[in-house]
C-alpha cells in the first residue's frame, strides 16, 4: 500500500470515539481533514447512533460528498431512512445525480416519493427519469451535470460559463456544443478554451463530430471506449441525438473492475465478490453450482460403471482416469480463459471467428500430440506396457482436442446467441470434459483391451 | 459496440489504398479527420512501405500523437528504426515522456544513444532517468509534464501559468504546489483556480497535505488508489518528498486491466493475452504448465495404482474417483477465485486473516456436508449399497474441506511471502486436490472394504 494512505481501522475508532462522546467540534476538525474518499471509508465503519450524530454535526453538502464516494458494495438507500426526510432530500439534492440514483435504486416507492417532494422539481424529474434507465446501460451510469452551449458563442463566453458552472458540473474539462434542437454537434476541451483567443467562436475550436454513446449502449462497451480513447468523460445522447448526460472516467474504472470480476466469477463458477457474507451465505451461494456439476459428473461415473467389467479385467485402466480427465480439463480451462478474455476486450484481437477457431484446433492438436507422447513414454516405461502407453497417449490426444474446442467454442457461442450463461465457466468445462475424456478413453481401451492384458 | 465507432478494418483498407497510390493530400484529409485513437488503430494495420509514406506525409508531432495512443501490445521501438534517426528523435521529443520511455524500453543501446543525441539535453536526461525506474513501479508509468508553482503565488498568476503550459502538460486539471526544496506541499485544482478571486494566494486555496505516492510504489497499488479516490491524476514524489512526476487516470485504467488479466491468467494457468500468437507459439506457452501438472497428476495415478488390489476386488470404487476429485477440485477453484479477488482489492474486505480463514473452513464444512449427503443418497439409492454411499459421502466431505482450505490458503501464503508463484492457479489447486482426494477416498474405503463387497 502507498504510504500516504491512513490507517482506516485506527482512524475509524478515533472518529467513533469522538461521536460517542458527542464532541462535535473536535469531530468536525478531525473528520473533515481527511480526503472525502477516506471519510467514506470511515463512515461505513460507524454504527447507527454514530451515523445519526454525524448527520447532525455535518451539513447535508458534506454528507452528500461522502455519499458520492461510497463503494458500490455500500451504496444503499438505508442511509437515507436514518435521516429526517427533509435532510435526506437535501443530501440527495447535493449529490451528483448519477450517484444519488444509484443509492435510490433500493428505496421503497413510498420513501422515494417523500424525498422527491422536498427536492426542486427539475432535479426530482431528472432523478425519476434516470431511475427508469435499464441497469448496466449508459443511461444508468451517466451524470446529468455537464456544461453545454451553442457553437455561435465565443471562447471568452464559454470560459465565463465554465467559471459559473464549475461548482455544480461533475466534469469541467469538456464543454459540449449543441444546436438549437439540443443535438450534440461537437466538443471543446478546457485546454482549447484556455489557449484560444477570447474572440474565437466555439464552433471554430470544437472537435466535430463528437465521439458519443447512446443511452441504451451497454456499460461495458462504454467503459472500454473511455479507456481506449483515454477520455476523461464521454457524452451520452438519446435516440434523437440529443445530449442528455456524460459518463466520467471514474465510473468507467468501476465498470471495468466490476465486469472483470464478473468474468472471473464465470471462470471459477462462484461470485467472487461474496467476501462480506458469513460462511452459511457463502456456502449457499456456491452450492447450486457444485451440486449441478456433481449431477453432471454422475454421468461420468455411470459411464465408468458401464465399463465396470473392463475395469475388473484390467484394473490398471482405473489408474489413469484422473490423469486423462485432469489434463484435458486443464487444457480446456486454459482455452476458456483465453476466449473469455478475448470477448471482454474485442479490440485485443481483430481476427475473424473462423481464424480464431482454426488456431484453437491447431493449438489443441499440438498440445495433445506432445502431452500424449509424454504420457505414452511415461506409462510405457513405468508399466512396461507399450500398448497401454499408446492407449493412454491416444486417449489424451483426443480428449485434449475436444476439451480445447469446448473451452473456446462454448463462450463464443454463448456470446453469439447473446446469453450470459454460467456454462462458460472453468468448472463446467472441466466437468463436461471429464465425460468426453472417459468416453474416449474407454472406447480406445476397448479396442486394445486384449493387448493390454496379455502384454 | 457503440455505434459512433468506425469500422477500423474498412477504414484501414481505404487509408492503405491512399498510401499505396501516394495520394498525400487526400490521405491527410481522410486520416487526420479520425480521432487520434482511431488513427493509432489504423496505423498498426499498415505495412512497412505504407508506414514509411505516412511518416513522410505527416509531421513528427502528428506521429507522436498517434504513438501516444498505441496499445501496450503495439508499443515497440521497431517503429523508430523505420524512420530517419532525426525524425525519430523529433517524434520522441513530441511524445509524452512516459509513453516515449515505454516505447524506448525495447530499443538497442546504440539506437537509443543516436536518438538522444538529437533530443534537447534536458528532455534526453529525463528519458534516461525514467528508463532506469523498475518496471511495474510508479516511476515506470509516471509522466513528467505537469504544472507546478510555489504557494506564495496568486490564483491569477497560477491561471496564467496553466494557460502558458496547457499545450505541453499531460494534465492541466491539477496544479502542484512545492516549497523551495521542490517538495510537494499541496494541490490546487483547476476548478478551485477558476472560481477563486484572482488575488487569493495559492497556499490558501490548496489542499494540504497532498495525497501522493512514492516513486518505487507498486503500480497496482497506485492504480487502485487513483480508482478509489476518483483522481484524474496522482503526484509522484521521490525519497526526499520532491515532486518528480504524475500518474494519470488513463494509465491507471491500463494497469488495472493488465493486472486483472494477470489474475485471470493465474486462475487458469495460461497467459490470457496470448491472442496474437500463432498456434505453435500458443501451444508452447501453454505446454509447460500442462506437462508440470501432468507429472504432478502422475502421483495421483501412482496412488491409485498402489490401491490396485482393492480396485480389482471392488471395481465399483473406480466409478466414483472422478466424482470426488471433480467436485473437490471445483470447490477448491471457487475458493481460490474468491481469495485471488480479495488480494487484488484489499479494500473490498477489511476482515482479519484469521477471520477469513475461519470463514473459509466453515464454508468448506457446510459445502462438504451438503454435497456429501447428496452423493451419499444418490450412490446409496443407485448402487443399493448404503455403506458405499457413506464411504463416498464421507470422502467427499473431507476432500472438499481440504480443497477449500488449499484454495484459500495457498494464494494468501504466496502473498505473505511476497512471491507471485503460479501455484496459486485453478489447475494447480485442482491437480493437488486430485491427489489429496484420492488419498482420502481410498483410505476411507479401505476401512469399510469388507462391508462394501459383502453388502
From TrEMBL, chains A, B:
Belongs to the SLC41A transporter family. This is Magnesium transporter MgtE. PROSITE patterns: CBS. The keyword Transmembrane applies. GO terms for cellular component: plasma membrane. The chain crosses the membrane at residues 287-305, 317-340, 361-382, 388-414. Its main location: membrane. Keywords: CBS domain, Cell membrane, Magnesium, Membrane, Metal-binding, Transmembrane, Transmembrane helix, Transport. It is a multi-pass membrane protein. The keyword Cell membrane applies. It comes from the Bacteria. Acts as a magnesium transporter. GO terms for molecular function: magnesium ion transmembrane transporter activity; metal ion binding. Homodimer. It is found in: Cell membrane; Membrane. Residues 142-205, 206-262 form the CBS domain.
